[in-house]
Amino acid sequence: MRKGSDDRLRSGVAKVTALQLEVAGPVPDVIARAKSGDRVAFAELYDQHVDSVYRYLLYRVREPSDAEDLASEVFTRAFANIHRYRWQGKSFLAWLYTIARNAVTDRRRRERPMVDLDNAYGVAEDGPTAHERAVHGEAVDALREGAIRALQFRALGRLRKLLTSEVA
């Protein structure tokens, strides 16, 4: 009895899986036409997916104008590289999301502040060298030792006055 229910469960999973792939994936004919250079087919793919890609990018960059720029860049890259797309059981939109993720990463790398090496050398040149810091540290240590000795000398002087006043 258990074996029969397992068979029914497996067949149900197979039907659901097949249905999900058909619903999730775009019509392969449109992709094939776009891969062969049909601009109208690519325009269909654009119309079908531009809103989803834009929402994804807006979530990632939080700025509508940046999301629009990146969406344009994503579809430009997709059009230039449509010949590389291979159907792997995932939707065309998943491929576009991968391009979008990479575009966001590229944008963030470009916007990262960079320091010119000549300028960085100049900044380091303005500060003290390691030797100067060491000499300065030794001087500070010598001042501390001198201050401690002065305090000890004063304390001994007071102690001497107290002892001489008690004896007298």
How far apart the termini lie comes to 115 Å
Low-confidence stretches: 13-27
Count of separate structural domains:
2
**Shape call:** rod-shaped
CATH topology of the largest domain: Rna Polymerase Sigma Factor, Chain: A
String of helices and strands: HHHHHHH
CATH homologous superfamily title of the largest domain? RNA polymerase sigma factor, region 2, helix turn helix motif
**What's the helical proportion of residues?**
over 70%
Report the strand count.
0
Radius of gyration: 37 Å
Please identify the top-level CATH class of the largest domain. Answer: Mainly Alpha
Continuous helix count: 7
- Provide mean pLDDT, rounded: 80
* Helix and strand composition category: mainly alpha
The largest pleated sheet is described as: none
Strand percentage lies at under 5%
The CATH architecture assignment of the largest domain turns out to be: Orthogonal Bundle
Account of the 3D structure:
The protein is built from seven helices and no strands. The protein is rod-shaped. It has two domains: 2-111, RNA polymerase sigma factor, region 2, helix turn helix motif (Rna Polymerase Sigma Factor, Chain: A), CATH 1.10.1740.10; 129-167. It is mainly α.
Tell me briefly what this model is.
The chain has about 170 residues and is mainly alpha-helical. The protein is built from seven helices and no strands.
